[in-house]
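cron nightly-structures :: item 1 of 1
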Amino acid sequence: IIANDFGEGGAQAVARATRQAIQLFETHAATYAPHCGFSYRDAYVYAQNEQQTEELKKMFQASLQAGAQVAYTEQLPIPDSFDKAIVYPRNAQVHPATYVHALAKA
């Protein structure tokens, strides 16, 4: 949990920087790399036992306090069993080699 190492202000800065980075990926993909496969994807973190569930609850609360978008979810996009899961919506996904190659050519 970032706040444990860098404090609440540091965690908020990371959440803000992450949102800005995703916006930058979208802008660069549209401008320089339209064929890099940019898309928004949800990111999931899940727990499969009691110890992991406790850590997940801490992660969820810390994410909320830092200003990150996060929610509990009842389903995963993979066929795996879990006790509890959270989702971070709208993360950026690109084909990294295509994206970096296009940026290098720009």
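cron nightly-structures :: done
The beta strands are 39-47, 71-73, 84-93.
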